[in-house]
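Q: Got a minute? One more chain.
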Amino acid sequence: MKLIVNREISKHPSQDTVKEFEMSILKDPCVSLTDNSRFPRFSRACMFFYEFNRKHLARFDLARFVIPRVIPQECFAVLMGPSDFIKCLPQFLSAKRKHVYLFDAFDQNFSKIADLIDYFDISTVFFSSSQATDWFRAKYGPRRVHWIAEGVEPDGYSPSDFGDRNIDIVQFGRKYDRYHKIVKRFALENNISYLYEKKKGEIVFPDRDSFVEGLGRAKISICVPSCVTHPGRSGGVSTVTARYYQSMASKCLVVGVRPKEMDDLFSYNPIVEIDMGRPEKQLAHILSHFEEYIPLIERNYREMRSAHTWTARWKQAKACIYS
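A: Always. Here it is, folded:
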């Protein structure tokens, strides 16, 4: 099987999770890599024709213009969302079997994703969201559509000793604005170290190394699903995103909102759920009694390593593909 990557797309920090999964897949000796950043113009031209065909209800046989010998028989691609589909071209024009793993499959993109599945005759579709999986299974059936939860590659993280942690609270990526305002005020009034996105789109940690190092020095990591922080984009999709697992891999205490999927993935509650009735008192208690939460942090770390790695997720995906 060929794993399709595109190093140009992967330069954005939001693609780090995609790259983590790709690196785990490439540990499989049955998988080799093909990098589509070699021909970006051709890929963009293919996507243009696809968009034209979809809008005008006509089918332009792009496969006739692809040299057959460059197309592998079976391909797999990890996509941050449907807009990343360009990385699958030209392989998805003629490959016999095509498989994709999709993050960020939100309600508003369902019809676009269905168009892509139909047009390119994708063999197997994996979603990081169980709710998206339910919707597409109703359309395509359980043999073609599967839920594979997000994961983490734990060896890529570097948790510091609990006594050496000098960041009290971190909220990386998108913020839960209502809670953030409370935490920010609490941190200022109590001389608490709190790292967060200062401006929209600004990266808390400028590169991968500083992200791993910084998260490894944090005591509390605030994690909230996109359906709470950005309901207009995510609709009702409530997913255990990689940030939960990355926080566990860094041995942070996860404070946040529990996604619906968490009940299916854990036999216990691995997070401290935000108490909006007394948020400041809750944070003050956690930070002053942090040692009481270390058993939960260590349990999460063991559970994450045993059941929620990207290597384990790839084994699940392979079992679905070849069953």
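A: The chain has a mean pLDDT of 87.
Q: Perfect, thanks.
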